Amino acid sequence: MKIGISCHHTYGGSGAIAAELGKALASRGHIVHFFSQAAPFRLGAFSGNIFCHEVEVMHYPLFDCPFYSLALASKITEVAWYERLDVVHAHYAIPHALSAMLARQMLEDKCSERRCFRIATTLHGTDITVVGADRGMQDVVRLAINKSDGVTAVSGYLRDETRRMFSPKKDISVIPNFVDTSIFFRKPDPALRSNLGLGGGKIVIHISNFRPVKCIGDIVQVFHALTTQTDVTMLFVGDGPERSGAEIRVRELGIADRVRFLGKIDDIVPLLSIADLMLMPSNAESFGLAALEAMACGVPVVATDAGGFPEFIRHGVHGYLLPPGDIAAMTEKALLLLTDELLHNRFAEASVQQAGGFETARLVEQYEAFYSGLLEG
Known about the structure:
Blueprint: E1 2-6, H1 13-27, E2 31-36, E3 50-54, H2 68-83, E4 87-91, H3 93-106, E5 118-123, H4 126-129, H5 138-146, E6 150-153, H6 156-166, E7 172-174, H7 190-195, E8 202-207, H8 216-227, E9 232-237, H9 243-252, E10 259-263, H10 269-272, E11 277-280, H11 289-296, E12 301-304, E13 319-322, H12 327-339, H13 341-356, H14 360-376
Parallel strand pairs: 1-2, 1-4, 2-3, 4-5, 5-6, 6-7, 8-9, 8-11, 9-10, 11-12, 12-13
Helix pairs in contact: 1-14, 2-3, 3-5, 8-9, 8-12, 11-13
């Protein structure tokens, strides 16, 4: 098949999954064309079956906003016609599915000669719970969903939220996020601890885009409590609007020497390989890819009993799922895993086994079957 993938190139789960899916499809012989403002951050090395099309946005003084959605539609139109794309897979309803829909409309006259591409849309969360929650955008999101030929969601939670909020006419299939366990596995590098100036204590990690929903302040509170009871260092990976406030709070609490803000890092496996625990206290999470990748590297997770987490984290087996905002309970369970070596080892082994059930190859096969169903329909 010839498959177009439209996605965000920036740090985050949707861009990571889109890139990993494209790479896996290319390795299975499909031709993949990426549409984005820049190469997706997880794309990595060159592949003969992968092509990237950077969307160039025109800026015009009369308008406050750049024409990204229109420029994306134009680029999809061009490539879809000349490369004879079978499917355009939009990761996010807005703007990607809407742009794909517009591109297909622009090709209507030409498509009388042959069948136009099919539109597959994957909902990742923010397009539903944030953009879609805006009353002014609800009809736009609903249109993007209903005009797609097929729609998937990365978790049952997100599927149910979409149905509740939009009552879509389209059926929504669940294809969960995935992890490549040939890449994400524990391979400790003693030199890394030294390079980061870490001692022999335990290491807690958090990876995200630092949006308010990630509850970075809760992590700081939990970690501060942990420092009073054990030798521990905190690694923050990623960047976003909540980072500055967290840095200030860490200094105010006098724990800055135990915290490392590492910024955006593409290759997170070395960091996960030295981590003992991941904290993910999000108020909501459509899936939680960072947690699954941590589990593949043998890192138990203390997370919230919210969103998609319960669909792959079993409380008391792979980590702990606790009510959002319950700092005391998160601290208690985190301390237990950091100080009880036998318990930690059991959770770590169970986490690796669980991650294997979300192996890339298994989920890519589901996407291949999904595309084939659209082409046959």
